[in-house]
Amino acid sequence: MKLLRWKRALHNKTVWFSLIVILTFILISILTPFIAPHDPYEMSIGNSNLPPIWVQNKSPVGMQEFVLGTDQFGRDILSRLLYGTRTALFLALTAVPISALIGMLVGLITGYADRQVDAVIMFFTDIVNSLPNIMFLVILVLIFRGLLTPTWSHGLFTLVIGFAAVSWVSLARLIRISVLQLKSQLFVEAAVSIGVTPRRIITHHILPNILHLTLVWIINNIPVVILLEAVLGYIGIGVTRTVDGGEFTVVSWGGMFFSGRSALNHNPLMLIIPSLCIFLISMSFLLMGDFLNGITRQEQE
Predict the structure, then answer these.
(1) What is the DSSP letter of 236?
(2) Nearest-CA neighbor of 106 among 131, 123, 130?
């Protein structure tokens, strides 16, 4: 029966569309250093504010080098878009699994522990959950940015910490509810009655039954992190790096939004294309998550 459901997935156009889009973005992020036509940080004031190559019938000299045009500093938009893909996927594929690990551990502990431990931990999660995610994330990023010594990777590190710190609560609550339900199942009660240790019960009986929830949660939260990075970049506190003693914004889709605000009139592609990329990759992950959620529910039934 399980095999039949997965075979049907091979004929699901939505699944194929999602897979193709996701794998395309991943492939682009891997090949970015080889396919990007320019250094995304290279500035050329003489080539600033160039429109896309197809806008004018007769392109100025050198304009053919910049397919999507340039920004106000003469930086190639296509190259920045490609490197932005790399930044977005790195952050999402790093922060979300870390957050999932935290949420799964907290959910397992609160669900299986006694009521006092459960009450204390859930009180803490309620406090974290009561704070607006974006505000909490901004505060954490600014705090860690001030504490850490500026290096090439400290900007990425602060965002990964921030994303993981604000995202785990929803999974912890979901896992806790599932663990409480599983504890009342006959196979768990039978294991307890014959003296099986709590550690073995969790690892052999409970954990296998919640992994599908964690997988679906991870897939559904990858676009959330990508969108949060875009929001942070738009308000000017995105990923940074240090170059020759000065701090610069690492290329990201959020950073393109920040730069594109002042360039909307002469080249709206600076905002439109990153928006389309975020929309495509977000919809693909959400559709894939919805499909996997449906499959796992059918298997449980």
Answers:
(1) T
(2) 123
What pTM was computed for the model? Answer: 0.84
The residue written with tokens 């940015």 in the block is 145
Query: Is 186 within a domain?
Result: yes
**Beta strands per DSSP E along the chain:** 240-243, 246-249
> Does residue 62 fall inside a structural domain?
no
Q: How far apart are CA 20 and CA 31, in angstroms?
A: 16
Our measurement of the distance from residue 53's CA atom to the centroid of its chain's CA atoms, rounded to an integer in Å, reads 32
Q: Which long-range contacts (CB under 8 A, 24 or more apart) does 192-195 make?
A: none
The residue to which tokens 């690990």 are assigned? 101
- Rounded to 5 degrees, what are φ and ψ at 44? -145, 95
217 vs 208: which has the higher pLDDT: 217
Q: Give the residue-averaged pLDDT of 150-156.
A: 57
Residue 101 belongs to some domain of the structure: yes
Residue 270's CB: how many other CB atoms inside 10 A? 26
Kindly report the CATH number assigned to the domain that includes residue 93: 1.10.3720.10
Rounded to 5 degrees, φ, ψ at 243 are: -130, 120
Which tokens belong to 96? 């979300």
Contact 67, 78 (CB under 8 A): yes
Helix (H) or strand (E) holding 37: none
> If you compute the radius of gyration of the chain from its CA atoms, what whole number of angstroms results?
23
Domain range holding 284? Answer: 16-26+77-300
Instruction: Report the relative pairing of strands 246-249 and 240-243 from DSSP bridges.
Output: antiparallel
Q: How many domains does the chain have?
A: 1
Q: Is residue 135, in this structure, part of any structural domain at all? A: yes
Q: What is the pLDDT of residues 70-128, one digit of tens each?
A: 887 878 888 888 998 988 999 899 999 999 999 999 988 888 887 888 788 888 888 88
